[in-house]
Prior knowledge:
Number of strands: 8
Main location: membrane
Keywords: Endoplasmic reticulum, Heme, Iron, Lipid metabolism, Membrane, Metal-binding, Microsome, Steroid metabolism, Transmembrane, Transmembrane helix
Number of domains: 2
Shape: globular
Protein name: 24-hydroxycholesterol 7-alpha-hydroxylase isoform X3
Distance between the termini: 87 Å
Number of helices: 18
Largest sheet: 6 strands, mixed
Transmembrane segments: 6-25
Cofactor: heme
Amino acid sequence: MFGDLDLGVAVVAALLTGVVLLVVLRRRGPRRPPCAAGWIPWVGAGLRFGKAPLEFIEQARAQYGPIFTIFAMGNRMTFVTEEEGIDVFLKSKEVNFELAVQYPVYRTASVPKNIFLTLHEKLHMTMKGKMGTFNMYQFMGRLNEEFHEQLEDLGPHGTMDLISLVRCLLYPVTVNVLFKKGLIVSHKRKIEDFYWHFQIYDEGFEYGSQMPEWLLRNWSKSKRWLLALFEESIPDIKAYKPERDDCATLMQAVLDVVEGEADRHSASYALLMLWASLSNAVPITFWTLVFILSHGDIHKTIVEGISSVLGGAGREKITVSEDKLKKLLLIKWCILEAIRLRAPGVITRKVVKPVKILNYTVPSGDLLMLSPFWLHRNPKYFPDPESFRPERWKEANLEKHVFLDGYMAFGGGKFQCPGSSAEES
């Protein structure tokens, strides 16, 4: 009996010793950032984070300090908010952009991992070259023409919500210039369907990038509708020749790269480019107009500048060129200031090897995150950060495409937004 008891005690003692050793070894291991994890397995803090992500990020920073981890939907997202962490995010070889966005790209556009990793750098270089400063003239003429056409269709009178007006102008203009003129204007019902499905797809994009499609039925339906539209339209997009010049459209340049490696995924890349262009252009335009119209003195100065450079209202057609835009610097400052105040919530990298930031070690597998929205509210870089002050951009060297310190709207590093030059211009 005592022998059995001794054996039982020995087993219990061994188990306790093992637990103690594991705890001690864990404490002696690399110190990880503090973590907001929640109590639901896999979901973690996902419900609170998904409900109001920007507020949750700021609350976590106030609670945990300049570096912290949020566990949500099976992902460990480690946020950095000060110089050392930002420097690691932008420059470290231990973090990777492509691996961070590959899974969301698969979720939202059905591009397999191997195809995405094979084509991404080639496509990034192609798009960056096509939308670079020296090629802006190719877009200016087409944009002038398209905006005149859309404004004529609207007519001189009527009322509309501002966001609806912006969408009504930018949806067809963007598609006609980047893809193919007439892609979505074959008849009124198709235009309405396109607006409806893209709006659902855009508004649910963040959820669709992380969650199974069967949980997002309407979003999934709109995604399939848009993919089917592009599947049907790819041959016409390839064959399209702009009337004004012989320059290929941006989508044609993308298809030239995709064709050699993954022809059957052409529609997926068309959907990605559509989202990347409209999901940024629409809110940027909307908020720029909101801020300008909310500041009477700025609005008055801009109207006077437009009349001086482009001519007064009533002219049949106004031609906008790069040279003329350079004389309207206040408009550019307003756009950059609107982007500063309404920048996207987060940008990300995948940690491929453990990386040290401050007194913590961020483990491999974590997603390293930056929030431009909150970085742009750092008074060290932007005094009176909540105010719309376009004049602060006088200090930036925009001629050389150098923004203000702390400005992260277009990302950074090797894979900075390829359309940053176009958006700034």
